[in-house]
Structures are given as C-alpha cells and as structure tokens.
Amino acid sequence: MKRALLPIALFALLTYCLPLVSLLVPVLADGSFDQSAPAASGAEEEGRSPAAQFLLPSASGETQQPAGSAADSEVIRLWDAGSQQVLEVPLLEYLIGAAASEMPVTWPDEALKAQAIASHSYALYQRDHADADKLSGAWFSADPARRQGYMTREVLESYWGSAFEENWARLESLFTPILHQVLTYEGAPAAACYHAISNGQTEASENVWNEALPYLSGVDSTLDLTAEGYEQTVTYTTQQMYDAIVLAVPGAQPEQGKPESWFGEASTTAAGYVDTIECAGVFIRGTDLRTALGLRSACFSIQYADGVFSVTTKGYGHGVGLSQYGASAMALTGKSCADILAHYYPGTALETLG
C-alpha cells in the first residue's frame, strides 16, 4: 500500500541541496569511481542526454492542441542551455542531432527511427504546452555542447570525427522518409518520454511526475534484463550517507552509532520501482532518494554491513516510456519502428503530418 507522500517542500529542498549532495562520490562495488551516476532524475549512458530533462507532462484537463501540419514542425525551437540562446533548428537536422545524442549510431535502423519519432513527438508536445514567458519562446531546453538532448552539426563533427560524413548520411537516409511522422494521442502530439534501460517493466508516469497519461502506463520490457549495465552496485561510507540524509530529507534524524537503522521498509510500485522508503523516521519518495543519492534508477535496494552502505540499482533512467535498449533489442528480433512505438506507447497513433 502506498504511503502518504512528503510535502511539496521536499522537492524544493532537494533541488537546493542537490549540488551539495552530488559532491558525495559513490564507489562502484569493484572499487572504481562511478562516472555515470545521473544527476537530477535520469541521465542516460555517458555521452547521452538525461531522459529526465523533459518538462513534466501538463496537468490533466489542459486543452490540447491538434497535431498540426508538416509546415508547423519544419523548425524546432530549443533553448541552448550552454550558450543561453534560442536555436531554430531545421527538422531533419534536429532529428539527426537528437537521435545521435540518445543512441549509438551503430544501433539498428528501426530503433533509431523509433527514437527520432519519439524525439519529434515530444518536441511538438512541448511546443503545445510551453510557457511563452519561459525560455524566451523556446519549447524546451537542451545542451548541445554537453551532448544532452540534442547535438548541433558542429558538435557532431567533433564527436564523430572522420566518421561524420558517413554517420550523418546514414541518419539522413533513415529519417528523411519519416520526417513528418509523429505519435499522437486523441489527435494531439504525445509526450513520448524515453529512458536508457528499464528494470524489466516501464514505469507509469504518475509514479514519477504525479500525472497519469494513459499511453505512459507501463509495459513489459524484459529484454532490458540482458543490457550491459542493467544492474549496478555503488557504495557509500556511513558519513557520506549521513550527510546525504541530513541535507536532503527534512525532519530525518539518523541515529548516530546505529546506521543499520537508518532505512526501513520500502513499498514499491506495480513495476517494481521504489514508491516510498522509510529514511531515518521519515517516509520519502523513491524518486526523491534516487535524486539525493544520484542513483541510476528508482529500482534500488539498500544494504548495510561493516560501515558501508551498498545500493544496488536495476535499469537506468526514470523508466517512463520507451526503453532505448529495449527498442534496440526489439529491432534485433525483427520488430519494426511502428511495432516498437506501439509497444511502448499503447493507445497512441503513428500519424504523418500533412
């Protein structure tokens, strides 16, 4: 049974404390330092963007805009977090840069196409729900220089080096035929979220963003269990964990000398991600503890022994929507781009803007 969530003030405090908590460097079980633990709520593999950089889905009942026409989506307006400028990116160039920031260019054609359509759909969803007073009129933010969310042609030239022309040509040939294809739900662009690896089941959107979207209700993704990096264990010293709890959990009082008592029973969602967990006398959302500790996933377990906390995670990212590894694995079994999208976004329609 789900327990009551903490007051909304927790989120604000987590946001304030995150830069401090991120100074705590977890150590992998093999003794190496973790270079890829996601900040905030869901960075993907190194060199790929945080899937959780997406804006939160809009509140229920908000008027949705129609999918529009092809001409409406010829240019994507995004906020470059690095240069602090609005970029107006031609659609094909955006699809190439977005897909390249999310998936290795060597992955199967159908997976790359599914990623491109998901990125396009989400961009249009953001356009239809953007706050005109924020981001100087851009629909959403990305950081091309850090290869997060979108990479410009110039960044890709540096990133791919001598393979640039070949890679660009490959993606251009893949995406040109699907240039105006988008996922819609009830006639409007869908919030086609994505992440790197699920725990074997994708998460329902309401368990991450408190907003239920019918096509983000969670589906089976058992092929993810074969992904490299599916499971990871990081360790924290007692002092590191104490500091993290005190900074991030209002009202928590970790008892000195009894670290084994700091974490209690956890409740989980239907998909197996931590819903709430008792932390030093306070119940905290699993997604919030994930943020505080910089964990790869909200599917985690915590063990304490001999002065060390070991935290094991399964999956990578917020878990909502398309699993990028799962899409690749499905493509390798012969599934088409349309099959992949229909699986991860049930109830949506794949439409061509005209």
Main beta sheet? 4 strands, antiparallel
Which structural class do you get from the secondary structure elements? Answer: alpha+beta
Radius of gyration: 20 Å
What is the averaged pLDDT score?
Answer: 84
Helix and strand run: HEEEHHEHHEEEHEHEEEHEEEHHE
Q: How many strand units?
A: 15
Protein name: Stage II sporulation protein D
InterPro entries: SpoIID/LytB, SpoIID/LytB_N, Spore_II_D_firmicutes
Domain Sporulation stage II protein D amidase enhancer LytB N-terminal: 83-155
Pfam families: SpoIID
Q: Gist?
A:
This protein has 354 residues and is of the alpha+beta class. Helix content is 30%, strand content 19%.
SSE order and pairing:
Layout: H1 9-21, E1 27-28, E2 75-80, E3 85-90, H2 91-102, H3 109-129, E4 140-142, H4 153-160, H5 164-175, E5 181-185, E6 188-189, E7 194-195, H6 206-209, E8 231-237, H7 238-248, E9 263-268, E10 274-279, E11 282-285, H8 286-293, E12 300-305, E13 308-314, E14 322-323, H9 324-332, H10 337-344, E15 349-352
Parallel strand pairs: 2-4, 7-14
Antiparallel strand pairs: 1-8, 2-3, 5-6, 5-15, 8-13, 9-10, 10-11, 12-13
